[in-house]
Design brief:
Shape: globular
Strand content: 25-35%
Largest sheet: 6 strands, mixed
Structural class: alpha/beta
CATH architecture of the largest domain: 3-Layer(bba) Sandwich
Distance between the termini: 26 Å
Number of domains: 2
Number of helices: 11
CATH superfamily of the largest domain: FAD/NAD(P)-binding domain
Length: about 400
């Protein structure tokens, strides 16, 4: 009899787990997601700045799942609760039983409640709708500059980015690069658009290597990004960002990338959690000491061998997904399992246009055009795999219709 594997969440981790599990004939997979698409959040910076279109960052999950023939079923519904005792997942429409469960629900932007007005007056990039709204605001500013209608003078239009981690840095760099391109067409009207990158830490990219920090800072400064570190935001209204030191910054719109918190489903799970609601798991990524329930990606706190908390990246989500898929196979076969080892191979940061910075295997350091090509190759490989699977799914759908 086939083992039923239910996966909640069609993000990087959920899809990677399916890729590994779908090759087994004795496993049946059900993917549950509240959205009909897979959102390539790592490419949000390019979409926001207008370099990518929506079809570049959103993949149809139903067609993608059809690419595995009859091995994967997609349920376009919201998971509302999990019953570990009965081994089932409830959605807003049905109840699905499982033999093995993978929780891969990701995270959402943490609009800190102690910063008054932050949620009401800023955008996030953790979901497609907010990224889309942010893009429209940015394009509207560029359009008005082109038309020279609303902003007749060359007074600055300030765009603020709260949080100088990976997402914040990439968004700032790409927006600044786009503004630089437009400045060659409309001159000072485009240059009057100012990008402010704000972080409470004393450096950008806190926790990263000095090479990544210095390479990124030099690139941002060259692009004209105004970097504000050790800047604690106290409140935000519709005109100003207020800082704890008494200063304020007028702004046109703001995106906040300064923190994440677990998705709502985590609140319903009776399991130890950290201060931002992420699940605390054992060394085999099991939840509630249950050997058939796993959590991967941004919804869980994952540590390395030295106890350091790993950053919530797509790479970590995929690594944890691969491990869990292999562990499920071993559990079915009743063979020995091992603890999770993240073994992070490297990191690349897009820094506007055809420029990037990255590190690989702990000793290779690269920046500039060649780093951009490497990052592009990695991204294109992932995207191509998704598109090929969708093409297969489309063909399978036509066959099913004819039959």
């Amino acid at each position: 009899m086939k083992k039923e594997v239910v996966i909640i969440g069609g993000g990087y981790g959920g899809l990677r787990a399916i890729e590994f599990l779908a090759k087994y004939e004795d496993i049946s997979i059900t993917l549950i997601d509240k959205n009909p698409y897979h959102y390539l959040q790592t490419e949000a910076y390019g979409y926001i700045a207008g370099r990518f279109d929506i079809h570049d960052i959103a993949i149809d999950l139903e067609k993608w799942c059809r690419g595995f023939k009859n091995k994967v079923t997609f349920v376009y519904e919201k998971a509302t609760s999990i019953d570990f005792q009965e081994q089932n997942v409830k959605t807003d429409k049905k109840t699905l039983s499982y033999d093995y469960l993978i929780i891969a629900i990701g995270a959402k932007t943490n609009f800190f409640s102690f910063i008054e007005g932050l949620r009401e007056h800023s955008f996030g990039v953790k979901n497609l709708q907010r990224a889309h709204n942010f893009r429209k605001e940015f394009e509207d500013i560029i359009y008005k500059k082109l038309q020279n209608e609303e902003y007749v003078s060359n007074e600055p239009v300030n765009l603020a980015i709260g949080g100088a981690g990976l997402s914040g840095v990439e968004v700032a760099a790409e927006m600044a690069n786009v503004i630089d391109i437009y400045s060659k067409t409309i001159g000072d009207r485009a240059k009057a658009i100012k990008i402010y990158l704000i972080d409470a830490s004393d450096t950008i990219l806190p926790g990263m290597s000095q090479f990544m920090i210095s390479s990124t800072q030099k690139r941002l400064e060259k692009l004209g990004v105004h970097i504000m570190t050790s800047a604690f935001i106290s409140s935000v209204d519709d005109a100003y960002i207020y800082f704890k030191n008494g200063e304020k910054l007028d702004y046109h719109f703001m995106v906040f990338t300064g923190g994440i918190k677990a998705s709502d489903l985590n609140d319903t799970i009776k399991n130890e959690k950290n201060k931002i609601g992420q699940l605390i798991v054992d060394k085999e990524l099991n939840v509630d000491e249950r050997k058939n329930v796993f959590a991967i990606g941004d919804c869980v706190e994952i540590q390395d061998d030295e106890g350091n908390i790993l950053p919530p990246t797509a790479q970590i989500a995929e690594k944890s997904a691969e491990y869990v898929a292999q562990t499920i196979r071993k559990r079915i076969d009743k063979t020995k399992t091992e603890a999770f080892d993240a073994n992070v191979s490297g990191i690349f940061i897009a820094l506007g246009g055809k420029y990037a910075a990255g590190e690989m295997f702990g000793f290779i350091k690269i920046k500039g055009y060649w780093a951009y090509l490497l990052k592009k190759a990695i991204t294109y490989g992932y995207y191509l795999g998704l598109r090929l699977r969708i093409n297969t799914g489309y063909k399978n759908r036509i066959k099913d219709t004819k039959n």
